[in-house]
Design a protein that fits this description.
Length: 206
C-alpha cells in the first residue's frame, strides 16, 4: 500500500526514511522531532524530499530519478491536523462545502449527504466552529477532508488537542471512517492507546 524511500532535509534535520508496508491503516510513531510530520508533508507534497520515491497504492507521487513530482493539488490527499483548522466565519455546511474546492472533477465518491451521515454531523450544519466541541470540530474536519475526494487520508495527531473525554468520544468515529471509507490512512500519534485502537500496523521513526 505504502512504498516510501526518501531522504528528508528540514533545516539541519536530515534523515533517510524507508517505509514499505502492506497494511491499509498505518500508524507513524516515534519521539518528538523524529520527522513524523515531515513524512506526512512529503506524502502531501508540502515538503520536497532531497531524493527518493513515494508510491501509494501503486500511484507514484514522487520519484527523483524519474523526475516525477506530482503537485499537491493532484495528489488527492485528505489531511486532518491536530487542530481542526475550520474557517471561523463559515458555518459547518460552508466548511464542508469548502472541501469540494479541492476535489477533482469527475465522479464523486463522497457526497455531502454521505459524509454528514457517516460522521453524525447533521445537527451541526448551521453552527459556526466557535460553537462546536473540539471533537465535533474534528469530525467536521474529517468530513471536509473526505469531500475533497481523497485517495489517501493523513492524520497528524488528531486527538492531541482534546481532553481525555473528547478523545474517547472521537476514537469510535475514527474507527468508523477507517472501516467504512476503506482508504489508505497514515496516522501520526504520540500515544500507544489510539495507535493500538486505530492502526493495523505501526512504523516507528526513532
Ligand atoms: N521548516 C523547518 N525548518 C527547519 N527545521 C525544521 C522545519 N520543519 C521541521 N524541522 C525540523 O525537522 C525535524 C522533524 O520535525 P517533524 O515536525 O517532522 O517531527 P515530528 O516527529 O513530527 O515531531 P513532533 O512529534 O514534535 O510533531 C525537527 O528537528 C524539526 O525541528
Amino acid at each position: 500500500m505504502l512504498d516510501i524511500d526518501i531522504r528528508l532535509r528540514r533545516g539541519r534535520f536530515e534523515r533517510d526514511v524507508r517505509i514499505v508496508e502492506d497494511a491499509r491503516v498505518l500508524a507513524l510513531a516515534g519521539p518528538s522531532g523524529a520527522g513524523k510530520t515531515s513524512v506526512l508533508n512529503a506524502i502531501a507534497g508540502l515538503v520536497r524530499p532531497v531524493s527518493g520515491r513515494i508510491v501509494i497504492d501503486g500511484r507514484t507521487l514522487f520519484d527523483s530519478t524519474a523526475g516525477i513530482d506530482v503537485p499537491t493539488h493532484r495528489r488527492r490527499i485528505g489531511y486532518v491536523f491536530q487542530d481542526a483548522r475550520l474557517f471561523p466565519h463559515r458555518d459547518v455546511r460552508g466548511n464542508l462545502r469548502y472541501g469540494r474546492h479541492g476535489a477533482r472533477r469527475g465522479p464523486e465518491t463522497f457526497s455531502l449527504e454521505a459524509v454528514v451521515e457517516l460522521l453524525g454531523i447533521g445537527a451541526l450544519l448551521d453552527r459556526r466552529p466557535a460553537n462546536l466541541s473540539g471533537g465535533e470540530a474534528q469530525r467536521v474536519a474529517i468530513g471536509r477532508a473526505l469531500l475533497s475526494q481523497p485517495a489517501i487520508l493523513l492524520f497528524d495527531e488528531p486527538l492531541s488537542a482534546l481532553d481525555q473525554a473528547r478523545r474517547e468520544e472521537l476514537i469510535p468515529w475514527l474507527q468508523k471512517v477507517r472501516d467504512e471509507v476503506r482508504l489508505p490512512m497514515v496516522y501520526v500519534s504520540h500515544t500507544q492507546d489510539d495507535v493500538r485502537r486505530i492502526a493495523e500496523a505501526v512504523h516507528v521513526l526513532d
